[in-house]
Amino acid sequence: MQDAVSDLSLRDEEGDIRPEFLHAVAAALDEGDGARARALTVDLHEADLADLLEVLRQDGRAKLIEALGEDFKAAALPELDEAVRDQILEEMPAEQVAEALKELDSDDAVYLLEDLDRADQQDILAKLPYFERIALQRSLEYPEDSAGRMMQTDLIAVPPFWTVGQTIDYMREAKDLPERFYELFVVDPAYHLLGCVALNKILRSKRPTPMETIIDEEMHPIPVAADQEEVARLFERYNMNSAPVVDGDGRLVGVITADDIVEVVQEEASEDILAMGGVGGESMADTVWETTRLRFAWLVANLITAIAASIVISMFEATISEMVALAVLMPIVASMGGNAGTQTMTVAVRALATQDLGPANAMRVIGRETAVGLLNGLLFAVIMATIAYFWFGSDGLGLVIGVAMIVNLFAAALAGILIPLGLDALDLDPAIASGVFVTTVTDVVGFFAFLGLAALWLA
Fold first, then answer.
1. Phi, psi dihedrals of residue 279, rounded to the nearest 5°
2. I need a labelling partner for 440 at 20 to 30 A (CA). Which of 27, 178, 355, 434 fits?
3. CA quadruple 169, 175, 176, 179: dihedral sign
4. Which residues of the chain have pLDDT under 70?
5. pLDDT score of 273
6. Is the pTM of this model over 0.85?
7. CA-to-CA distance for 62 and 419, rounded, in angstroms?
8. Cβ atoms of 297 and 290 closer than 8 Å
9. What does the pLDDT read at residue 4?
């Protein structure tokens, strides 16, 4: 059996999970061959194990964790998709979850606990040692998506009068140091943050040097209640590897590292992409009913916009009946406007999320986008006017669709930039609501401009 196992590898040349590996694990689990399933997966990295758990059926996940037993890597749990992770935690006994939390950094442990019911949280926390339980409870009290939730409470803090030699000796002898760290923090007796010292600076300083003399003066402490998006921007702005987290009184309460920020950036980017598509909060692990429920509201909103556009079309029913070519060409005007509006909206939403767009440059960006919309409108007006003339042999029809194209692409550019800016000013998420409003504007303006001009010029 060992030779057969060694011939199988998890990923192919493209980095995707091999179907044959997945089928081998699934077959072993279905047949109750826990030993083979364990042999196939026991040496996997926690990130690879998480990917494998996500593609297995729900019943297979529980069987694989049971087959791995004490060799199950708890670090795989924070790597899982949220829906899959919650399903697994619900099926795992509280004692097993508590044992897994002991192996994780405090920020990862909080990440696992925060979405569970309060009763489940308390049941799991009750099985942890006192000091670990108190630290996790304190972190869970901070607002969701705040620095307090994502920080690690495992850190190294030393008094300012210690020397470099004393600090190095302490790090060599202490048994409860963080697994990985990049800097130490200097605090006063009340734990107020005085500064930080990078490890490379400690290694380059002589042993008698007091720690207070090598403190980094360019420190960027993060308030414990700061939103995780703002924390990510601070890391990007100042190129930080880690940063201290302080409470309202300036006391050191935790540290955030660059690997935490990578997860935040991925999470926020995924949320924005899903929200713009009307599938916010959806996961590949969701059931058919859950997926239908999540998408239904967005589709209802789109139905309302479609009805609004249809009402505009019905106002020109007589005009359309007199000239069938209008029914052929009007979807082109609306479609081009919709695509142009989506392009502008996507750029605007992204710029707002990264703070590249704000009051300081809003007017300049609005001017640029409307100029782009007008220029594209003129270019496509010439193209469509030419096509309409040769297609239907009517120069009047070509003129109508050309002017309508200019009007709609200009309106699309305005809507694509002003709607996200307006929603952001109202403290609403532009990624969620912009699409519906921009679609409504481009459809209604496109149909009204094209059919209205046709009613006036072609009557």
1. -125, 35
2. 355
3. positive
4. 1-8, 269-286, 433, 458-459
5. 66
6. no
7. 46
8. no
9. 46
26 within 8 A of 60, measured Cβ to Cβ = yes
- Do residues 50 and 58 make contact, with C-beta atoms less than 8 angstroms apart? no
Select from 239, 263, 305 the least CA-distant residue to 447: 305
- Domain 2-142, architecture per CATH: Alpha Horseshoe (1.25)
pLDDT attached to residue 191: 95
The pLDDT, as a whole number, for residue 197 is 95
Whole-angstrom distance, CA of residue 356 vs CA of residue 76: 35
Is 327 strand, coil or helix? helix
DSSP 383-446: HHHHHHHHHH--HHHHHHHHHHHHHHHHHHHHHHHHHHHHHHHTT--HHHHHHHHHHHHHHHHH
Domain ranges of the chain: 2-142, 157-257, 288-457
Give the separation between CA 394 and CA 384, rounded to whole angstroms.
12
Q: Which amino acid is at 65?
A: I
Burial 48-63 (b: 16+ CB within 10 A, else e): bbbbbbbbbeeebbbb
pLDDT tens by residue, 134-191: 989 999 999 988 999 999 998 999 999 999 999 999 999 998 888 888 899 999 999 9
Q: Which structure tokens are listed for 198?
A: 């990078």
Cβ neighbours, 10 Å, residue 30: 13
d(CA 113, CA 102): 13
pLDDT given for residue 6 in this prediction: 46
What are the helix (H) ranges across 104-254?
106-113, 118-125, 130-140, 147-150, 164-173, 199-203, 228-238
CATH match of 157-257 with 3.10.580.10: yes
